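REQUEST FORM: STRUCTURE PREDICTION
Request ID: SP-0412
Submitted by: Lab K.M.
Chain count: 1
Length (residues): 105
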Amino acid sequence: MSAISTGIIILGLLGAATFLSGFVKGVREAIREYRHPQPEGEWTDSGHYGASAFFAVLASAIIMALVGFAPAWIYAGPLLAIGTATGVGIAFLVGNKPQTVPVHD
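STATUS: Completed
RESULT:
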């Protein structure tokens, strides 16, 4: 097995572990929230996820195009997928508690 394959497998296992631990945390929080609901307030979204989604799509398109020019870029696809799964797992772990403000009638 080549060094790049071994590296991708190791990174994949680390990414999967990060994703799964974050996912389990997210499911536990969702179950806890379902069992003990809090009064809802007005949602304020301070996240800026549009730009990161745009750059993720752009990176995917660039990598797919580069594979046509140099076959070595085929290894970037799995690394991009591993990075995406790891990022989602980290987002679950960090959590984005909704900051609510009271609703005034």
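NOTES: Residues 3-41+48-96 form one domain.
Reviewed by: T.R.
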